[in-house]
Amino acid sequence: MRFGYTTGSCATAAAKAAAIGLFTGNIPDEVEINTPAGIKLKLRIYHKQLSANATQCAVQKDAGDDPDVTNGCFIHARVERNFTQTIEIDGGEGVGRVTKPGLQVPVGYAAINPVPRRMIEGAVKEVIGNGCGLKIVISVPNGKALGEKTFNPKLGIIGGISIIGTTGIVRPMSEDAFKTSLLCGLDIAQGIGYETVVLVPGSLGERSTLNLFNIPKDQVIQISNFVGFMLTAAGQRNFKRIILAGHPGKLAKLLRGDFHTHSAVSKPANDILIDIIEQQVQNMGQESGIRGQKTETRLPNAILNHLKEVSTVEGIVELLRDAGHLAVMNDVAERIEAKVLSFCIGERPFAPTGVGVILFDMKGSIIGISSSAQTWLDVTKTKLSS
Predict the structure, then answer these.
(1) Which one of 5, 11, 50, 290 has the fewest beta carbons within 10 angstroms of its own beta carbon?
(2) E strand intervals along the chain
(3) What integer pLDDT is reported at residue 295 of this predicted model?
């Protein structure tokens, strides 16, 4: 399988090359960048334009064996001095603008996510050091048309694509080969003798689980979007307990019966969460934090209405947090657990004896936990309490 690189990595490499050109008078043919995944990339530079006051160049997106609508497009960076001793990063043609709250980028800003912004700034500082100011504009000439083919319009991102990527690397989604590679993690855990495995959709769940809990890395298995496939495979290997841990934006899709959660076949989970919130939050004494502390009872109708306007699950989570009603996510976790247990029972004779669910926000904090998962954690203990 061939990995690719994200639009964020493309923008980072283009910005670094343009900065080199601005300060040396020569834009290189390729540059090396660091990625959050710990993998160094050497990327080729195209469309070089050099002038006294600004430079511009581009990197071609390569999604590896997981091509998407942005595969093959050119991500451009234009760099010029700004004499403010700060690095300004903005989006130009073909980079979307955020129009709705709840995303990682504030309303009105270019849809360049926080990790790519940090990557761009860090790469440019390798060239210019501290104390120099630059204005960097990222653009995608055909980005407006490409953006219409993504979820961006539904998210309230208009005018282009997003510059994204939490690791800088695109991991291939070719199903047969990818599934085979995922099974290796289960086989290793089985060989070691673990009775419990923690299944995580991606790097957020893995990182949060390892940061918070006293469990070895080999016990945490990435499953990507293949939740049903990996649940069945875990049952076939006779694990007694399965813990699902990840962001509700991914795991709440299971409540719809979507055990393959890729966005190409499973729509966002906002509507599911809002239905649960409307059912539960008006009728229960609310808890603050994760479990056990009473707060005010009813969620105001104005906030319920606002939830329907938020474009992402993370935005819903933040609204609940601000309103003091985050504990409704415990109920979401319980419902996901019941759905997963029902799925596993249908896979007999391979059903585990226990299932639990832990939900994290994008910062890696626990926002919801099922009772079975809490019982497991009471035995496992967290790093914070040990």
Answers:
(1) 50
(2) 4-5, 30-34, 40-44, 46-50, 54-60, 74-81, 87-91, 97-98, 134-139, 157-158, 169-170, 196-200, 220-222, 241-246, 287-288, 293-294, 354-360, 366-369
(3) 43
